[in-house]
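tool_call: predict_structure(chain=1)
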Amino acid sequence: MNAVRNVLNSGSSLGRPLDRRGFLRLGGAAGAAVLLGGCGGTSTPPGAGSQSFGSGATYDGPKVTLQFWNGFTGGDGPFLRELVDQFSREQKNIDVHMTVLEWEDYYAKVPNAVASGSGPDVGIMHIDQLATNAARQVILPLDEVAESLKLTESDFHPTVWNAAVYNGTRYGIPLDIHPLGFYYNAAEMQKAGVSQPPTDAASWADTIAAMQQSGVQTPFWVTATWPAHLMFTGLIEQFGGSLYSEDAGEATFASPEGIEALNWYVSWIGKGASPRNVAEDAQATAFKQGRNTLTWDGIWMMNEWNTVDQLDWGVAPVPTIGDRPAVWASSHNFVVMRQQEQDQNKLDAARIFISWISERSIEWAKSGQIPARNSVRESAQFQQLQTQSALAEQLPNVVFPPAVPGIGDITIPTYEKAVNEAVLGRKSVQDALTEAASVANKMLEENRQKYGA
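tool_result:
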């Protein structure tokens, strides 16, 4: 599958096969499907029960087969399949059967399969799906897994480690982080006399001016579609704001900071640095053609740029346009599915499988990911992966969605729509964000009623 069509996988397989925007449209469908538990709150962590994942670094039980589902249908899939096959070859008593679905199908089928007793044993979920599936008791708490494997915050980047916790309970073991990055046409930058990629608002403006003077008419294509709303997610944080209040009880993206952030993004159209009405994916195509020379997109796009023989490209952290660095990111996490009758041997085997892949995630990083595990990310092998190691510098500044159920439902009809309307000039930045925030607040209240406060 074309890497441009692979989003949060690694890229990130995200139907047609499901395209990049498709994954972020899954929230509503996934939330509707995951109605396994009651709608009210409970004092018991969702999915809690008598299950135990055992302890120790090896599995000595009878032979078991683990069903492992994920959505890695793109160029990243073979990297993970090779790891899974290697694990099965090395383990005397554990065989892993990997099933790959489009992410859209995956998030729709998993809850129903779990409810019917035919779900997988182990799976992968994006960071913004953990709370929803935990609240609906699709996935099990993994605090015991972390404890038995002696995994703590010190073994991972703290942001990604803590993002997998919902209501004080862990539901994911992080595999990776995949942020946006800043890609530039190195040949055109050199031609324009720019020796270093821009790092802030002033050097960004200077770079655009230099490129225009050197003959690149529109060096920064401002898209109204993907990944514009992800760029906005980082920009609002850079300007001191946020998408939601700290408790995620209120949408705050129509704040002065949000308005300033989106105005900055839209302004490049009026300044002539971008064509108007950039079509979906046109900015990526133009980058490959050398017409769009400065672009922000996911780390997984490294695979796409590498398919173009004549493209001389470089990568750097997203510039800090506001007062502080910030960048959108997501993360793939291992999860263990709830079963109607838990098999202790499979739980023990799942723990070993998760640990084994995590320890060897340098191979997964080669697909276009940043390992969540410190020991892998700090290795000499990882430092040799130029794009991944360059974008790993952003990890202290990544912005994840809040860990509340149903948060993925809200993106598309609210701030993503607002960014689209503002870029296309259909509404002013302030009107677009204000109207979207009103819709988001209604949806947040509906989610509180739906999932329990």
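agent: The chain has two domains: 3-175+331-399, 179-328. Proceeding to next step.
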